[in-house]
Specification:
By secondary structure, the chain is mainly alpha-helical. The protein has one domain. It contains 18 helices and 5 strands. Strands 3-4-5 form a 3-stranded antiparallel beta sheet, covered by helices on one side. A two-stranded antiparallel sheet has the order 1-2. Helix 1 runs parallel beside helix 7 and helix 13 packs across helix 15.
């Protein structure tokens, strides 16, 4: 590969290999930034593209990620530097490497998760390359939010035109498929964007932007509740509770709290009308309450409680781990069907064992601590609360398998404050 001249100052030019060009001095960086903006925009729209084209293959986000990987390879020293210095990221990679090794030696079930996790880890590494640039973080956030807003409007249109699939069992009714997502996937996408919208509203001063944000937030809340996802909704409520509790620690503006109060009042009145003054709304609300009661008091063999207990039994039988996705094979022996544990932390406990669980907990702690420190230092909370939401929701699903989760994980694992506390990468 031939080196090319790079302008280092206005007075002279020096030839260097492209891997040694300082970041920001190469057209490759410009192209990678543009691709990552498109990738962030496409993260909430994965299901819509497949639903619109009728394709069951790869999503737009996948192809954009492939292009980003190609460009990032041309900047591999800088990418690896950020990955190596990201808080907790290497520990998380180590956990998945351990489960992959266990599965390689003891394959008990057809596995399509290993390739997905490798793709997600690489995707997170690419976002780490730009996560320490505050200006680009802001642009990535707005790109993501625009894509999320289109998802909300598309979903609302789908509900209005009956373009969705319902699942009914007795008195329980829920949306099984909409906008190319299952109910739980859709709920996660909507809830994460609601938290981003919530935090953005508190930083905007223009009345028009706030008005549009409030309208989109209320519409998104309606769309979220119709999914009837117990884990997605309850996790959002818990995250919002933590958000309000944390406000005095880093936000002391009276204007911020006034905005919060107005937003909550509008949201409560809007949802009260939809779910208590309309027949369809009452039907969905009663179904949601019924499903929550079933979650708390179910006693059949497929209930979450029995699945959780069986997963813990797998851990006691194999304390070093059983390998990626092999937990379903062990659950099939105990419960008669290859259930998913429905709790990602229990899944890690069974599949990675005690060593992997310790590494996993340590890695997540380091990521959350670094994100919290950056929030306190800068006041930028748009990335922290969606990450916390996914971590809470993972207790009821597979949130670590979503591309959008690794986007928020990267933005908290390596921040502008992280890069300032370390010496820059050598380019000589």
């Amino acid at each position: 590969m031939q080196p090319y001249p790079v302008q280092q100052s206005r007075y002279y030019c020096q030839y260097r290999h492209m891997w040694h060009v300082p970041r920001g001095y190469s057209i490759i960086d410009v192209a990678l930034n543009r691709v990552l903006l498109l990738l962030a925009f496409s993260l909430p729209l994965e299901g819509i593209l497949q639903d619109f084209t009728g394709s069951t293959g790869r999503s737009l986000a996948f192809y954009l990620a492939v292009v980003a990987v190609g460009l990032a390879f041309l900047r591999i020293p800088q990418v690896l530097y950020n990955v190596g210095n990201a808080h907790g990221y290497i520990l998380l990679v180590g956990v998945y490497a351990w489960t992959l090794i266990l599965y390689y030696f003891f394959p008990l079930i057809d596995n399509n998760t290993n390739k997905l996790l490798i793709q997600l880890i690489i995707l997170g590494g690419i976002f780490l390359y730009v996560s320490d640039r505050r200006d680009l973080r802001n642009r990535l956030l707005w790109a993501y939010w625009l894509g999320w807003m289109l998802l909300v409007l598309w979903s609302l249109s789908s509900y209005a035109h009956g373009d969705y699939q319902l699942w009914e069992h007795g008195s329980v009714i829920r949306v099984a498929q909409i906008s190319g997502y299952t109910a739980n996937q859709h709920a996660r996408q909507i809830a994460a964007g609601m938290l981003v919208t919530f935090t953005l509203l508190l930083t905007q001063r223009r009345i028009l932007i706030r008005f549009v944000g409030v309208v989109i937030f209320v519409v998104a809340a309606f769309v979220l509740l119709i999914t009837n996802s117990r884990g997605g909704i309850s996790s959002l409520l818990l995250t919002l509770g933590l958000f309000f509790m944390a406000q005095p620690l880093y936000a002391r503006s009276s204007r911020r709290f006034a905005t919060l109060g107005v937003l909550i009042v509008l949201l409560v009145f809007g949802l009260q009308y939809v779910f208590f003054e309309t027949s369809d709304g009452r039907r969905f609300w009663n179904s949601y309450v019924l499903r929550v009661n079933q979650l708390l008091y179910a006693e059949n063999d497929s209930s979450r409680e029995r699945i959780a207990q069986a997963t813990i039994d797998v851990f006691w039988e194999k304390p070093l781990g059983v390998g990626q996705q092999n937990s379903q094979a062990y659950l099939r022996e105990r419960l008669g069907s290859a259930y998913d544990p429905h709790n990602y932390y229990l899944r890690i406990l069974a599949e990675a064992g005690l060593p992997g669980t310790i590494m996993f907990a340590a890695g997540l702690y380091m990521v959350v601590r670094n994100g919290w420190r950056w929030l306190i230092y800068s006041g930028e909370d748009q990335f922290f609360w969606p990450l916390l939401y996914f971590l809470i929701a993972a207790a009821t699903g597979r949130d670590f398998h979503f591309k959008v989760f690794w986007f928020f994980l990267a933005m908290n694992a390596y921040t502008p404050a992280s890069s300032q506390s370390r010496s820059p990468v050598s380019v000589d």
